[in-house]
């Protein structure tokens, strides 16, 4: 096989493997005519398939296809002998049907079992080109040929690639939390913050007043009814404050002002909690 063709076949089989999950050994459905041609032209079928598919192959023949060879009689015994070395593919056709129809039904609408089809039937090849991802092999003047990918195959490949690029709805949902979780991780990787010891010290300084406030709130829980009253008082306190602010500083000692402010804060606290 010429190097150029070998490269093209290698690329083609890579496409079937990458985009459609073909794996070695490639399962090759061989039709009766191919068996006949191979023996008549003295083509080493298994070896040739291995060369053009560039990997291990498992030739298979369906019950209907081997039956066609039986019908040909003694003259085609070598073809029958060849077919008998292949793995028999059960097609479960109770009554034998023509090989083309049998192979078409085994491949099905989607070729879900990932068969390569080696057939000399032109009509069957046309039919199989409409199904995505069916590698088709035939023998042309003693040369085994792997067909270029069909339009259906290329379209399906492009569609799959498009789908792979865009996440589905469920994938987007699963992506959302992970992306939001990423920034903090990055922050961890970045430069470190201030010395943790210094941060702790600050907390120690600020904690005591907070603890006191909380403790007081627990000691003197304000009933809901009183909240309104206290608010009223709060308003008056506000008035007082504005009034006192206008007065000279000597008449209103600083301590009293502070006390008022404190009281006001306490009065508003329960209201905030209740809402
Ligand atoms: Zn069959």
Automatic annotation (TrEMBL):
Matching Pfam families, A to Z? Fcf1, UTP23_sensor
Q: Which GO terms describe its cellular component?
A: small-subunit processome
Record-linked InterPro entries = Fcf1/UTP23, PIN-like_dom_sf, UTP23_sensor
Where are stretches of biased composition, namely Basic and acidic residues?
A: 210-235
Instruction: Please indicate if the UniProt record lists Nucleus as a keyword.
Output: yes
Region of interest called Disordered, as start-end residue ranges on this chain: 162-275
Instruction: Give an example GO biological process.
Output: rRNA processing
Q: Cite the entry's keywords alphabetically.
A: Nucleus, Ribosome biogenesis, rRNA processing
Instruction: Quote the function comment for this protein.
Output: Involved in rRNA-processing and ribosome biogenesis.
For this chain, the family text in UniProt reads:
Belongs to the UTP23/FCF1 family. UTP23 subfamily.
Q: What is this protein called?
A: U three protein 23
Tell me the organism.
Answer: Mycena albidolilacea
